[in-house]
Amino acid sequence: xxxxxxxxxxxxxxxxxxxxxxxxxxxxxxxxxxxxxxxxxxxxxxxxxxxxxxxxxxxxxxxxxxxxxxxxxxxxxxxxxxxxxxxxxxxxxxxxxxxxxxxxxxxxxxxxxxxxxxxxxxxxxxxxxxxxxxxxxxxxxxxxxxxxxxxxxxxxxxxxxxxxxxxxxxxxxxxxxxxxxxxxxxxxxxxxxxxxxxxxxxxxxxxxxxxxxxxxxxxxxxxxxxxxxxxxxxxxxxxxxxxxxxxxxxxxxxxxxxxxxxxxxxxxxxxxxxxxxxxxxxxxxxxxxxxxxxxxxxx
Length: 299
Ligand code: ADP
Ligand code: ZN
Known about the structure:
Blueprint: E1 3-8, E2 12-18, E3 24-31, H1 35-46, E4 53-58, E5 73-74, E6 85-86, H2 87-92, E7 99-103, H3 104-115, E8 124-129, E9 133-139, E10 142-143, H4 176-180, H5 182-189, H6 202-221, E11 225-229, H7 238-250, H8 257-260, E12 267-268, H9 276-298
Parallel strand pairs: 1-4, 4-7, 8-11, 11-12
Antiparallel strand pairs: 1-2, 2-3, 5-6, 8-9, 9-10
Helix pairs in contact: 3-9, 6-7
The chain binds adenosine-5'-diphosphate and zinc ion.
């Protein structure tokens, strides 16, 4: 089986071809430029790849309502040129295959449930903490959609008592993304996160904000696993700091062994590692193919 996967990021696009076992057989990556240029590169890459379906996990916000006239569009992004961009429609004109479409983080959550750190579970939360903060949700085995899709990266948390940084989010200032994404770390300390030593006070503040958000996610969604990916989470020392603070925040109230005894298997790195995003898009494509096959058998 050959499924096309597209990880549509605000910084870079990754395209690949994979199979039903979550194995990526070929991949390519290029910087995100103007949509016309970028989507032309995507089309070129897939032109002779002969894929049976395609999955796209995209930066957002995006339109996911199947009956909406702007289904398949990236909607209100401040990223130049990409506002109201018809991603799915543009690709559908070139490839007549079933398309799966969701946010990058919902896709990654699906990928982790299918092949990664949340296998055999049907509820999980996936965070990416990178250039922005995104939060994807799978509940009851399904990617969570509603009015739009979850936007947990823009929820405000309590403020760290020693932190006077105003926050970088153009919409909310000091929401989670405004306080804890890579650019916020760099703006607060005037050094990129990747260059800060592991014992720098930055990580105490960073783990505070992530733990605040995770505590809310646990109380609101009751996920069976929490997966933390993205460039900032390459700072391994954050994991024990976050786990400890989440346990402290909950203070015994959610009295289940996963939290009280096995927190290091509950808040984890992506099982799919650096491929979580692309494998997520692959899982979306596979799901789209299954639905299309079922629909054709039913008719
Ligand atoms: P994107 O979110 O654009 O897909 P990444 O997940 O790689 O890409 O996130 C990029 C952000 O993560 C940048 O702001 C960068 O400063 C930060 N980052 C990358 N690597 C590290 C690291 N090792 N430690 C801390 N921050 C990092
Ligand atoms: Zn925000």
